Amino acid sequence: MKIIYTLLFCFLFVSITNSQERFLTKNGAITFFSAAAMEDIKADNNQVLSIIDASSGKMAISILMKSFMFEKALMQEHFNENYVESDKFPKATFKGDIVNFESIKDTDTKVTVKGTMTIHGISKEIIIDATMNRTDKQITAIGEFYLAVADFNIEIPAVVSDNIAKKIKVNFEFNHKPYKK
């Protein structure tokens, strides 16, 4: 009987430890901005799922493409139907490592995140500079980077090529809380 209690205690301890090491947000914010000669295009998505494993410094992000909201409904329709083909490729994902995760303190700390971004079914290695802040109750991550549309096999018809930038500016802000099962 003593062995069963010991095993049960060990199982509960491992479960509690693992859940405390993960930080999650389902309301992360991503904004992308295209500055072009003909027009500027901006879209916001506040339903981004992001998780950080504090024991390893690994980070994973999942973005529903149809959750991007545009100023004009026609821009949103073209984005989903013509460019990123949201029905065929509903999510963009990122999986990577926060290189200097151990250095993150309770004040803003510059970090580098290396990983694989998958958009439109195409995966590409990227490096992102971010500012992170870590306490026992939260891990925040803020940053910006640029993505080249052509890197993800997103074709822009020649007739509208002046309307969309070749490189899109992406801003993000995530406020991760401890994950509780």
From TrEMBL:
<dbReference type="Pfam" id="PF04264">
    <property type="entry name" value="YceI"/>
</dbReference>
<dbReference type="InterPro" id="IPR007372">
    <property type="entry name" value="Lipid/polyisoprenoid-bd_YceI"/>
</dbReference>
<dbReference type="InterPro" id="IPR036761">
    <property type="entry name" value="TTHA0802/YceI-like_sf"/>
</dbReference>
<feature type="domain" description="Lipid/polyisoprenoid-binding YceI-like">
    <location>
        <begin position="21"/>
        <end position="177"/>
    </location>
</feature>
<protein>
    <submittedName>
        <fullName>YceI family protein</fullName>
    </submittedName>
</protein>
